[in-house]
Structures are given as C-alpha cells and as structure tokens.
Design a protein that fits this description.
With 441 residues, the chain is mainly beta. Helix content is 13%, strand content 34%. The protein is built from seven helices and 22 strands. It has a six-stranded mixed sheet, with helices on one face. A five-stranded mixed sheet has the order 5-6-7-8-9, covered by helices on one side. A four-stranded antiparallel sheet has the order 18-17-20-21, with no helix packed on it. A hairpin with a 2-residue loop joins strand 3 and strand 4. The chain is elongated, with a radius of gyration of 24 Å. Belongs to the inositol 1,4,5-trisphosphate 5-phosphatase type II family. InterPro entries: Endo/exonu/phosph_ase_sf, IP5, IPPc, SKICH. It holds the Pfam family SKICH.
C-alpha cells in the first residue's frame, strides 16, 4: 500500500502574469522542505489566465508563463509536469515527483464550456484523470457563472460539467466513477440567500463581521453550502467549511475588500473518496490543511490551498515497463536504430510513440523528436520480444548533455496516455557522413 500526499492550489489570477512573484509560500515549500515532507503531487488550478490571442497561440509552442514559473521553482526539487491542460483562461497543471512516473497511467484530460450557453470557454471546467498505484483520481478545475443573482446559472454549470465530462478509460467514464475526486476553482458562490428576501448583509456589514471574526455567522449565508445541503449541486462531495476570511473581492495590490461587491468565499476545494475496498485495502482520504494566502495581492481573489493524504494499493504495474536496450551514442548525421523490449502479452496502442528527451526533462512536452511505433495492431505475444525502430537523421540533438527515450502508450489526440518506459542516458556526437562513391577520385 502506498500513502500519497496531494497539495492543491486554486487561484483566479485576473489575467495577471507571475513576473517576479515568489510562489514558495503559496506552495508551502519552505515549511515542507524544512519538515522533509514535500508532497508527492502539486496540483495547480488557475482561472482567468491571460488568454489574449498572442498568448494563446504562443502556448502551443512554449509553456504558459505560470507553468514556466512553477517549473523553475519545482525543478530543483525533482518534480516534473505530468500533465497541463488549458481552455482559454482555465489552466490545470499536475506536477509529480519523478520517482512516481512509472506508476502513473492513463492520463486523460477533457474540458467543458459553459459560457454563453456552452459556446464560449471563459467559463466551464478542465478535468484531468489518471491512475496511480492502482487507484483512479479525477481533478476538476472550474470557473462558474459570476454575480450574486446567478445562483441558478452556477447550479446549471455544475450539472452541465458533471454530465458532459466523459473520459475514454474503461470503468472511469464519468467524474464520480473515480476512487478519489477533487473539485476546485472559482466556483463563484456568494453570501446571498435568495429565499430570504431582503435579509441579506451589505458589503459593509460583511466586512465588519469579518473584522469581528464572525465567520460562523457568515457561512450560514453561503450559497454553496446551501446548494450542497439541498442536493442541488456538489452534494456528491464534501468540504471542510472555510476557517479563513472570504477570498473575494479585494482591491488589487492590497488586502482591502472592494466594497463594490459583497465579499464571499468564491474559491473552494471539495473532495470525495469512494467507499471501496481494493486488494483488502479500504480507500482513505484525510484533509491535512485548508487555507487562504492573503499575502498575494495581484488579483481581486486570494489563492486557496489544501493538502490531502490518500492511500492506494500497489498493483505491481511496474512490471509493464518497456525496457530499452542501451544506445551507445546518438549520431546527429544519420538515422539511429533503437531497440526496445515489449513484455509478455503487451498490447501496443493505436498511437504509441517514443520521444527523445533531455536526461533531466521537467515535462512531457520537452521532446526533441519522436517516432510512432510500427507494431500497432499486432497480436500480443506470450513472451518478451525485441522491436527495432529508426529515428530520422532530421532529428538534430544538442551536442551538450545526455538524452533518454520515453515510451508512451496513447489512444490518440483526446484519448489517454501512459508513460511506460525510459531508457538509460546516452550522449550525442556529430561525425562527418561517409563519402559517396561518386565523390571519390
């Protein structure tokens, strides 16, 4: 049995860039590092990421500035990006300790638009699922309809996301088919009870109650809590009620509430573990922390984080790892033949591929080149078999540093992907090509 820790962050960044922002406190890194208990996963869900046309197009060729900033912080701690998915301003990124790579399978992302009747992605959700040490995990980052009076639209958004999110993994088609579900984001629920007529607090009254630490009285007006109790939205999940002040709405570059809006707990993290026994092991989920980070003031929202501990049975999936025969050296001037070994009864996926990566890669998008395997559709064999594949001479690798091959099993563009093997590091040389016969005197 494995015990894993997940650290989840949600933040509406109001189209701001991280620039010189220090994110150590947001990820609680200094405390974790001091106590020698860095989490196994960092999961960061952002809303209102700057998605102007230039930024959105450039994201196809390089990491979003927020992902890049997080990479710079987490790379020295040996984390890599297992998955990042963006739908306009919604961004979900999963960082994982390198040692867990072999045990993550069937990573898949889907997104649902709910803005303008489902035509626009300014609102909606990005969801990513994966298998890890024998259990299934689903992560949902969402941004629901805004404004006090839009409660019904928020509830409809939730229902739309729940019904329209469909994965291709068998037995985990829907969000709630998973062993563990974490749903977070700018859910936009406000302190306003539409059943109570004029019995609602003004922005000034709410601010005064916050100063007096009367949060227990305020939470009684929380639309999300009421919707959960009534079974109208998010009732499948649970939440530890916030013990921190409302995270919206602030004057940018300050910690003062903007009195043009009623302060509210818009930014939330909810969770669920299935009542299930796997290999005589009951699933267990513990919420270690749930807090806001008021020192960050670039947005009108304050970020919120929560750390969880879960358990999962080890199902020995490491036996499925693809093995590579050692490559002595890669020659940039010619084709390179690579050999890898398929385990017994291995089924090659319809879009399996092998990528060439720097040895210390920090994300699966950092390949220099790739080739699709040529054995898709072959019948699995009961014994190991060695397969050869040629990489084109057009793949020109830097002459500095070492490189590795990664084998990915994939079902296609929107299907799931699993990293099943990594080679030993190899160097690169560039030698002059052999002369052709017609050039010899």
């Amino acid at each position: 049995m494995w015990n894993l820790s997940l650290y989840i962050v949600t933040w509406n960044v109001s189209t701001k860039y991280p620039d010189t922002l220090k994110l150590n406190e947001l990820l609680d890194i200094d405390l974790h590092y001091k106590e020698k208990r860095l989490p196994d996963f960092y999961i960061v869900g952002l809303q209102e990421v700057n998605a102007n046309p230039h930024t959105y197009v450039s994201s196809f060729f390089k990491s979003d500035p927020w992902v890049q900033k997080l990479k710079e912080l987490l790379k020295p701690l040996d984390y890599i990006v297992a998955k990042t998915e963006q739908m306009q301003g919604l961004l979900l990124t999963i960082f994982v300790k390198r040692k867990h790579l072999y045990h993550i399978r069937e990573i898949e992302s889907e997104y649902v638009r709910t803005g303008f009747g489902g035509m626009w992605g300014n609102k909606g959700a990005v969801a990513t699922r994966m298998n890890c040490y024998g259990c299934s995990i689903c992560l949902v980052n969402s941004h629901l309809a805004a404004h006090d009076e839009m409660l019904e639209e928020r509830i409809n958004d939730y229902q739309r996301i729940k019904e329209a999110t469909n994965f291709s993994v068998k037995f985990c088609k829907d969000i709630y088919d998973h062993d563990y579900v974490f749903w977070f984001g700018d859910l936009n629920f406000r302190l306003f009870n539409h059943y109570s007529g004029n019995d609602n607090y003004s922005p000034q009254e709410i601010r005064q109650m916050i100063k007096e630490d009367r949060l227990a009285d305020l939470i009684k007006k929380d639309q999300l809590s009421l919707a959960m109790c009534e079974g109208r939205a998010f009732s499948e999940l649970v939440e530890r009620l916030p013990q921190f002040p409302p995270t919206f709405k602030f004057v940018v570059d300050s910690s003062d509430y903007d009195m043009k809006r009623r302060p509210a707990w818009c930014d939330r993290i909810l969770y669920k573990a299935r009542s299930k026994i796997i290999k005589n092991c009951s699933l267990h989920l513990e919420q270690v922390s749930y807090k806001s980070h008021p020192n960050y003031d670039i947005s009108d929202h304050k970020p919120v984080s929560s750390e969880f501990k879960i358990n999962s049975p080890d199902d020995d999936i490491s036996q499925l790892v693809i093995k590579f025969n050692p490559l002595t050296v890669w020659n940039n001037s010619e084709d390179n033949e690579v050999e890898y070994i398929l385990p017994p009864n291995f089924v090659v996926g319809s879009a399996d591929w092998i990528g060439v990566y720097p040895e210390n890669f920090t994300g699966f998008d950092e390949y220099y080149g790739y080739e699709y395997t040529e054995t898709a559709g072959d019948k699995p064999e009961p014994v190991e078999r060695t397969v050869k594949i040629n990489f084109s001479a057009s793949i020109d690798l830097p002459l500095q540093g070492n490189f590795v091959f990664l084998y990915f099993q994939s079902t296609g563009m929107r299907g799931y992907s699993s990293m099943l093997g990594v080679s030993d590091p190899f160097p690169v040389i560039k030698r002059c090509p052999s002369p052709r016969p017609d050039t010899i005197d």
